[in-house]
Design a protein that fits this description.
Strand content of chain A: 25-35%
Radius of gyration of chain A: 25 Å
Oligomer: homodimer
Low-confidence stretches of chain A: 1-5, 188-197
Strand order of the largest sheet of chain A: 1-2-4-5-6-3
Helix content of chain A: 25-40%
Shape of chain A: elongated
CATH class of the largest domain in chain A: Alpha Beta
DNA sequence: TGTGCTATTATGACCAGGTACTAAACATAT
DNA sequence: ATATGTTTAGTACCTGGTCATAATAGCACA
């Protein structure tokens, strides 16, 4: 290699890193930013297989477009794999990095809760189901990459109150437990759902 | 107005709608799609104040980039407005459409839980804090547009266990209550956090 | 000292997807 | 026939590139 082995390699490295956090920057701006010519930047991109701005912007747009949709429309957290209305249900949740504390890689508790809660609510055979109370217990932390299987069972139904138990496991080991009281609301909202809108 | 009042107006309307669901389409493609010339499309965009493809793509990219970040990196759900470590804390959460059931406009319970839980965990003065158990109670449904204020108080600390109460209100009215037991974990993970990684 | 090698920069032709402007064709009501 | 609104066409120019070619700078090595 030449006499400036560090320089070029180093610059390309920094370029790559920089573009990950600033995907919307043009070659011209990059050139100014790295104090080299536009052509050098283009050569670097070529060698590194990095597409032009517009392509990068488009990629970001498409990817996060889909992501926002999937996150926003998630009426259900976790994938429903089995459901017998009013009786029992099963849901699976893959612990992706988004669900964890970045520092520790441990899943944030409320996602386990969310999985259990949405499953419990899904079990209820009514137009609208609202969680009333819950007792929950985290047995051990769940880490990135683990697959959480939540199993819900309806224990009792009294009037419009469903008593539901959920147990979440990772490879058979219990990681989370919850008992829910869920209110079934049909048609007009009753006193519980007293709101003035 | 002219003799084709429907046609033009109607086309522009459809154009606008179409672009909301397909923001990445070029004028040429639009022209083919609406069976008019490219110039007509450009005039329509001009009249409607719709920017060119690249600009639209960029907007989508920037907006949803930020959104994904804010959703994914939300180590904290809700905005922390006050915090006295180990004593008490206050957090606010604006109920946006993403947080609600689309059908009813009622906030999904796990977001209220998440707000309370992250607040409780934030209160703990330790390297890592993990929720152990919780009792929660939803007092009334919260709707889109409401602003939930969660107030957390540390009740007791026994060894590494924090007993924390959280009360969430909308305009003074209690909508949610929770009691948490949170474990403080410093340095090496102890038996509770028994994992084999 | 010249030769070779790499890295960098410059230059020009070309492209997509536009903007901005001018002009012409078309339809139709008065 | 003329005025009016709609649509289409054409041109010059812009940004942010690709691709190919060439010139230049810096240093090693024999």
């Amino acid at each position: 290699m030449g006499r400036l082995p560090t320089t070029k390699h180093d610059r390309q490295h920094r370029l790559q890193n920089y573009l990950e956090t600033h995907p919307f920057i043009t070659d011209e701006e990059l050139a100014r930013c790295f104090a080299v010519s536009v052509q050098t930047i283009r050569l670097d991109r070529l060698e590194l297989g990095i597409p032009e701005v517009r392509e990068r912007v488009k990629q970001v747009a498409e990817r996060s477009f889909a992501k926002v949709k999937s996150l926003a429309n998630a009426d259900l957290i976790g994938e429903l794999v089995d459901l017998e209305l009013g009786v029992s249900g099963l849901s699976m949740l893959e612990v992706t990095p988004e669900l964890t504390f970045q520092r520790t890689g441990i899943a944030r508790g409320h996602f386990l809760f969310a999985q259990a809660n949405t499953l419990a609510v899904a079990l209820v055979d009514a137009e609208i189901a609202l969680t009333g109370t819950a007792k929950i217990s985290f047995k051990r932390p769940v880490r990135q990459g683990e697959r959480v299987v939540a199993k819900a069972m309806v224990k009792t139904i009294k009037e419009n109150r469903y008593y539901i138990k959920v147990t979440s496991r990772v490879e058979g080991e219990i990681v989370f437990r919850a008992s829910f009281v869920v209110f079934a609301v049909n048609g007009k909202e009753d006193t519980l759902v007293a709101d003035r809108s």
